[in-house]
Design goal:
It is a single chain. The chain contains 18 helices and 13 strands. It is α/β, with parallel strands linked by helices and 518 residues long. The chain has three domains: 1-202 and 397-450 and 495-518, Purple Acid Phosphatase, chain A, domain 2 (4-Layer Sandwich), CATH 3.60.21; 239-283 and 306-392, no CATH class; 452-487, no CATH class. The strands form three sheets. The protein has a six-stranded mixed beta sheet. The chain has a five-stranded mixed beta sheet with strand order 5-6-7-9-8, with helices on one face. A hairpin with a 5-residue loop joins strand 12 and strand 13. It is globular and about 65 Å long. The protein starts with a helix and ends in an 8-residue tail after the last strand.
Length: 518
């Protein structure tokens, strides 16, 4: 094949190693990746296949290899985000970040050892960061990762943690969160934070003023993770951005206040990016006027979580309704009308301080209604849940030849205009191979994590019929019986390049044991 004359590159992404394993044989623990053995087998299969042909390979891990957002707040970690949660959107203290990475590696050490063996066999390993492993941009954490993998002098190893794309021949590879308004990372400020940390020139309480993590990370830490104990499926439904806001609100309307705060953060960050982005689709923030007043000289502090939280209740509710309308359009008011009123109890307190869990009214949760057999209230809430699920997972989400999210198609088209023939993203968890123009392709490497695929009759059926089908799904979700709904489709991309470094073949492949040949 062409890969023997030139080289062959394999690409995987969204491994999401992180979170505690279950203490029981049947539980899921706090993980979305329950298939580390298969992932390890994949790396070892690459080594075996290369040995047979005497080939040198490259493995690219295209973002979210590890998942810091699935790790609970470290004992020594202060609450710089001002929010009383067991999880944090970003680990500012380098000691805590290293400890979290080490805990992830200890649980799944076989995979990291396989990566070390891959390097020992003279292959190349390239790792890009995503939006769940931002901490890998910090110098001490990068060093800890090299130590865990066992990188030695002479190994062909590269970690790209600066927001740069990675170019292989005429293919461009990047995680893709740059084009997601909720998860674009302010890399200039993140690198500045790492720079000051490396010199021990920044106090802990100044960190959040220099770098503020994406709104999507706050959504995971402040809402998705805290409700996961009751809704174990919640992070298996993708994506986890503004599309997930209706779902979270339908499940737990008591979190309306916090969701409004996160929505306000996302809209403000979106406005900031529009003013500062260098590209029509580029979401990265650039340095502009500098850093924080009195510290490093910038106005970015206005966008920190603490200041946003102090906004008014009206601002939060307006932001939430804007986010809902972006996804539900004409169904927005009907969706809101089916939920408990926001004007009573803790649910109504949309603005102000959200630093205490006492402001969350869990009595309104759908799981509590189901467990109490409150069938009348459940029946009233099901239409809202159905609307949210239909917005979250459109009918063709799992079709590999169609990308329903226009932001990724638009971004890929712009990159093709720059002269690339192949544009490779991850991030969405949906594997894709879409020909955007003759001989020019958009590809997505998919995920090695579990996902939930909603039956098509829930998505496309008449509302009355869909609601009946939904009841079985809801009952299973409430009791934690996920098996019949979970999909595990590990995929990888294979690029074969000729001796002039031109991509000759680009294949999207579903992994099967012992099926890799060169």
């Amino acid at each position: 094949m062409a890969g023997i004359a030139g080289r062959t590159v394999f690409i995987i992404s969204d491994l999401h190693l992180g979170g505690e394993y279950s203490k029981t044989a049947t539980g899921r623990g706090f993980r979305i990746n329950t298939h580390v053995n298969e992932l390890t087998d994949f790396v070892e299969a690459l080594i075996r296949a290369a040995d047979v042909r005497g080939a040198k390979l490259e493995l690219v891990i295209n973002g979210d290899m590890v998942d810091f957002l699935a790790e609970k707040r470290h004992d020594a970690e202060t609450q710089e985000d001002g929010f009383a949660s067991d999880w944090t959107p970003f680990t500012y203290q380098q000691e805590a970040a290293c400890a979290k990475l080490e805990a992830i590696a200890v649980r799944d050490m076989q995979f990291f050892k396989a990566l070390g063996k891959f390097l020992d066999n003279s292959h190349r390993l390239t790792i890009l960061t995503g939006n769940h492993d931002i901490e890998l941009s910090l110098h001490p954490v990068r060093r800890k990762l090299r130590e865990i993998i066992g990188v030695k002098p002479g190994h062909d190893y590269e970690l790209i943690s600066t927001g740069e794309a990675y170019v292989v021949g005429d293919a461009l590879i990047e995680h893709g969160n740059r084009y997601d308004n909720w998860n674009a990372v302010e890399y200039d400020r993140l690198l500045r934070l790492s720079s000051f940390m490396s010199r021990k020139q920044i106090a802990r309480n100044e960190s959040i003023s220099v770098f503020d993590p994406p709104a999507g990370s706050k959504l995971v830490s402040w809402v998705i993770n805290p409700i996961k104990e009751q809704y174990k499926f919640v992070d298996l439904l993708k994506p986890e951005t503004d599309v997930a806001v209706p779902l979270l609100l339908a499940l737990e309307p008591g979190y309306r206040r916090i969701l409004a705060t996160v929505a306000r953060l996302a809209l403000k960050a979106r406005g900031w990016r529009k003013q500062n982005a260098v590209s029509r689709f580029g979401g990265d923030i650039h340095a502009g006027t500098g850093a924080v007043p009195g510290v490093f000289g910038s106005d970015m502090a206005a966008f920190s979580g603490e200041n946003i939280i102090e906004s008014s209740q009206d601002d939060g509710e307006a932001a939430l309704e804007t986010v809902l309308h972006d996804r539900l359009a004409g169904d927005t008011q009907r969706f809101l009308d089916s939920l408990p009123s926001p004007e009573t109890g803790p649910t109504g307190m949309v603005g102000g301080d959200i630093s205490s869990a006492k402001f969350v009214d869990r009595a309104l949760g759908l799981a509590k209604l189901l467990l109490s057999h409150d069938n009348a209230d459940v029946g009233r809430r099901l239409p809202a849940l159905l609307t949210a699920l239909q917005a979250l997972q459109p009918d063709r989400s799992f079709d590999q030849d169609c990308e329903a999210a226009s932001e990724y198609i638009d971004a890929a088209s712009e990159l093709l205009d720059a002269g690339f023939r192949f544009v490779v993203f991850g991030h969405t968890h949906f594997a894709k191979k879409v020909e955007l123009r003759p001989a020019s392709w958009y590809l997505n490497s998919g995920t090695w994590s579990d996902m939930i695929r909603l039956p098509s009759d829930i998505i496309t059926a008449h509302p009355d019929e869909a609601a009946r089908k939904l009841e079985l799904f809801v009952q299973d979700m409430a009791t934690g019986f996920l098996k019949r709904w979970i999909v595990f489709r590990p995929t990888y991309l294979r690029l074969d390049l000729d001796s002039s470094d031109r991509v000759m073949n680009a294949d999207l492949v579903q992994y099967e044991p012992a099926a890799i040949t060169l």
